[in-house]
Design a protein that fits this description.
The protein is of the alpha/beta class. The protein has 7 helices and 5 strands; from the N terminus they run H-E-H-E-H-E-H-H-H-H-E-E.
Length: about 190
């Protein structure tokens, strides 16, 4: 049985047994916040527990490294929609120690792409089209600086309303301990 089939089989029982009822909530976050965090599997349950969040408490956007790499990309659009349409009043950027994006250089990723069938010609076409694939695939060297950078992009975005607190934190994926990097109430 495939992973997908296992999931669908489980889902059928989940729905038949009305297990969804304990998760019912609205589309508006109870704690009026939107969180940009990493897609790391260790954070799936740890981060909400460490932040005392339950189902329905926050909008959570997951992106590799919790990096806001483009001020007009889909991550920033999601943050703005959360603020303007879904009643979020605060933004948290939560990265973590021991992140796969820490120290990531684009060369090994590009080599893996080639090994899996992406041609050099395709990569060159992107480069010639003005896409800096090496910059796009680059991770970060310092998690604190990365959080500060993402917070700065959000806070200073021309479409972000003034007065919205934008906080930056780093979580330890082993213990759940949070380190405050940027206190959005003070900036």
């Amino acid at each position: 049985m495939t992973i997908l089939n296992e999931m669908l089989e489980h889902n059928q029982k989940f729905v038949e047994n009305h297990e969804y009822e304990k998760y019912e909530t609205t589309k508006y976050p109870n704690k009026k916040m939107v969180i940009l965090t990493c897609m790391d599997t260790r954070l799936l349950e740890l981060l909400p527990k460490a932040l005392n969040l339950g189902n329905g408490d926050a909008k959570i956007i997951k992106d590799a490294g919790a990096i806001l790499s483009h001020p007009f990309g889909s991550v920033m659009r999601s943050i703005l929609i959360a603020v303007y349409q879904l009643k979020a009043q605060e933004v948290l950027v939560v990265a973590h120690h021991d992140c796969g994006m820490s120290g990531l250089t684009p060369e090994p990723v590009i080599e893996s792409m080639k090994e899996r069938g992406i041609s050099e010609e395709t990569i060159d076409t992107l480069t010639y089209s003005g896409i800096d694939i090496k910059q796009w695939l680059h991770g970060f060297d310092n998690v604190t600086e990365s959080v500060e950078n993402s917070v700065g992009i959000i806070k200073n975005h021309p479409l972000m309303p003034k007065g919205v607190p934008v906080h930056g934190l780093v979580i330890d994926p082993k213990t759940g301990k949070l380190d405050l990097i940027v206190n959005g109430y003070q900036n």
